[in-house]
Amino acid sequence: MARLELDNITKHFDDDGQTIVAVDDASIDIDDGEFLVLVGPSGCGKSTTLRMIAGLESITDGELRIGDRRVNEAKPRDRDIAMVFQSYALYPHMTVRENMSFGLEESTDLSDEEISERVESATATMGIKDLLDRKPSELSGGQQQRVALGRAIVREPEVFLMDEPLSNLDAKLRAQMRTELQRLQEDLDTTTVYVTHDQTEAMTMGDRIAILNDGVLQQVATPLEAYHTPANQFVAGFIGEPSMNFFDVDLQGESVVGDGLNYAVSESVREKLTSDELVLGIRPQDVEIVGDVESDHDIPVTVDVVEPMGDENNVYLNLPDAHEGETFIANVDGRAPVEADDDVVARIPEQAVHFFDRHTGEALR
Ligand code: ATP
């Protein structure tokens, strides 16, 4: 087991003479046994970061340490890591048993007996004992992924690196494998870096999540910290489903005004607003629909569309002064008697409101 440290890591690619900054000065300390999820939209630099840790991509600047050992220049096989890819990357001509033992035969001096013991134990852990003599083409996608994971487990590495390992599975299997992977990682207690663009995976699996955008690390935090106290507007919008509602507002006296919203702000909150040009954010789950206006945080609105989700509804709301087509969402109990075109009151509790600097995106609190 090992601690993994990324110290001011940068990666530049050269694209026909143009420099692409794929990862810009990222620092993350990953604890021994921690499950860290790297998450962010397509192209944000997740895979490049993982590939630098794996040694599949050179590091332009910064230092990478595995268990206090600088590994910037170490070959992949000398880093004591095991990687699991989205594509599974199994050898098609080999059986499951051969796929799992191959890496060990090549890179270790374990005896045949020790290798077979490790393969036995990993196949038991992954529930694939019955598949040992099959070829990958004779396996379902889920089974192939189990073999790919089993192959990583037999290596007994210091660190697991996983690049979107579940994204080729259907939704149901993905959810099942998600819990299985978590249990596995807890049992093995191996430091793991897991890349995904799926925020549900990040929220449910990570001890901590590192959110990347455009090569820049935005926040490293527990899933709940990132949800409740996002460092900036990007994180606030990326984490949470449906996305946080945002209004561009200006501070005018004791209220913020803009995007059709006129919202009173108490003095204790106003004191923290270091800019007059702001973004007000409110999560759909924090918007309530009530009968009457009882305070200046209750706002008359019209229901545009109701999107039934089963036990809950996403209700799209129109502010009377908003531009055509500009709605915001309340996520409410599916039994709430709300229909399109209803005139209702949206309650936006002040303690649930987030403010961001409109120019830097930084959270103000
Ligand atoms: P995805 O989720 O789509 O896989 P990602 O977050 O993993 O995206 P990366 O694959 O790390 O993103 O890419 C980060 C940036 O670096 C992108 O702009 C990409 O185009 C660029 N990039 C990646 N590999 C290379 C390369 N070999 N040469 C030039 N540019 C590259």
TrEMBL record:
Compartments (UniProt record): Cell membrane
Domain (ABC transporter): residue spans on this chain: 4-239
Any one of the GO CC terms: ATP-binding cassette (ABC) transporter complex, substrate-binding subunit-containing
A Pfam cross-reference name: ABC_tran
Reactions it catalyzes: D-xylose(out) + ATP + H2O = D-xylose(in) + ADP + phosphate + H(+); L-arabinose(out) + ATP + H2O = L-arabinose(in) + ADP + phosphate + H(+)
Membrane topology per record: Peripheral membrane protein
GO MF, any single term: ATP hydrolysis activity
Gene Ontology biological process terms in this record: carbohydrate transport
Entry annotated with the keyword ATP-binding: yes
Enzyme Commission number, as recorded: 7.5.2.13
Enzyme kind, highest EC tier: translocase
Entry keyword ATP-binding: yes
SUPFAM superfamilies for this protein: MOP-like (SSF50331), P-loop containing nucleoside triphosphate hydrolases (SSF52540)
Key words, A-Z: ATP-binding, Nucleotide-binding, Transport
Family annotation (Gene3D superfamilies): 2.40.50.100, Nucleic acid-binding proteins (2.40.50.140), P-loop containing nucleotide triphosphate hydrolases (3.40.50.300)
Cross-referenced InterPro entries: AAA+_ATPase, ABC_transporter-like_ATP-bd, ABC_transporter-like_CS, ABC_transpr_MalK-like, ABC_transpr_MalK/UgpC-like, Mo/tungstate-bd_C_term_dom, NA-bd_OB-fold, P-loop_NTPase
Family: Belongs to the ABC transporter superfamily. Carbohydrate uptake transporter-1 (CUT1) (TC 3.A.1.1) family.
Reported function: Part of the ABC transporter complex XacGHIJK involved in the uptake of xylose and arabinose. Responsible for energy coupling to the transport system.
Subunit structure and binding partners: The complex is composed of two ATP-binding proteins (XacJ and XacK), two transmembrane proteins (XacH and XacI) and a solute-binding protein (XacG).
Protein name: ABC-type D-xylose/L-arabinose transporter
Source species: Halarchaeum grantii
